[in-house]
Amino acid sequence: MRSFEQRNAYFDRLCNTPGLMWLGQNTNHFDPHPGVIEAVTQALARGDYHAYAPPAGFEELRQLIVRDAGVPDACAFVTDGAVEALYNVCRNICEPGKDFVTTDPSWAWPMMFARQAGANVVELPIYDAAQGYKLTADQLRAAVGPDTGVIYLVDPNNPLGTCHTEAEIREIAGIARSVGAYLIHDATYSQFADDFTPAWRFYPEKTVMTYSFSKWLGLAGMRLGAVIANPDIIERLASAPPNNLGSNVLSQRAAIAGLKTKAEWFPGIRQRLRRNQAALAEAVSRVDGLHLPVYPSQANLLIVETGNAGVRPEALVAAYQTEGVMIRQGTYHTKRFGERFVKISLSVPEAWADRCCELLPAMVEHARKHPEPVALF
């Protein structure tokens, strides 16, 4: 069977597993504000889906996005998820022979998009406690030059959960400007951070920010995101986008309602997330050999190192799946460091998080007894 067929069959099985607890894809499974559901059902009842949406998104939504992102003077282009946004950006700004500089670990798909465009991907290792599991300015400065076309920064980092300070972002933006490189600031997890600084504030000329509704609002299956940049860059991205007929009308109505009610309900989501992180930290502390390198996380996830417990990450993932719990192996994110950890997403109902914690000692034992390779994606 071809690899894409295997991958699809794997996720089809997960999606069709009754009662599966999704703790592996950083998706948000908390219920949104009732107004979000009401907005979707009303749009459905009105038959709004019969017509295409505006090609760049509803004007109200575009304005709400840039205000929420903390860059009200920027321009937003609504997309079918942040992945499509990144695809469109990489296709337009990556050049053959130019360097696409990113971190390791990071998120894998933009690297694939960059390579497809002919760029040379340069991965800077950040899995190091000595540098706070973050990209340093000195590290970036030493890696860039005249051949640098793009710097890609996931902040907060997926999967590490670290977040850059304002001073760090200012310096990174300055380095990008010094070599004339585009700076892609992937802000997918910014809503979960205690403090987030958009790089666009310091380098609006060539900063491109990507924004997701999959995580904080929980619309992963409804596919909605955005690109945020200056109007000239957006004009370029809008000239021949993957979808020129507008993103999902129902998703956009949900997003508008979510942004309008965010102040009422999202602080409670963050509190519940922090509660789940604390529960997992306590559970990890009770199993010899397990370790949390980053805690608390500024994203909606934690990584758990398994090596000193004598457990392969893939074996632990497979063990949890026997109990109807999905977590993620580190090799999804990084070949260099992936054998060290599993990733566990925690923007989920407390009962799911508690079940994951309750199972942890038994799952570690199961993984030790069944270390054989399994097909995971």
Automatic annotation (TrEMBL):
SUPFAM superfamilies: PLP-dependent transferases. GO terms for molecular function: pyridoxal phosphate binding; transaminase activity. Its EC number is 2.6.1.-. Gene3D superfamilies: Aspartate Aminotransferase, domain 1, Type I PLP-dependent aspartate aminotransferase-like (Major domain). Its cofactor is pyridoxal 5'-phosphate. One of its GO terms (biological process) is amino acid metabolic process. It holds the Pfam family Aminotran_1_2. Residues 20-358 form the Aminotransferase class I/classII large domain. Keywords: Aminotransferase, Pyridoxal phosphate, Transferase. It comes from the Bacteria. InterPro entries: Aminotransferase_I/II_large (IPR004839), AspAT/PAT-like (IPR050596), NHTrfase_class1_PyrdxlP-BS (IPR004838), PyrdxlP-dep_Trfase (IPR015424), PyrdxlP-dep_Trfase_major (IPR015421), PyrdxlP-dep_Trfase_small (IPR015422). Belongs to the class-I pyridoxal-phosphate-dependent aminotransferase family. PANTHER family: ASPARTATE AMINOTRANSFERASE. This is Aminotransferase. It comes from Bordetella ansorpii. The lineage of its organism: Bacteria, Pseudomonadati, Pseudomonadota, Betaproteobacteria, Burkholderiales.
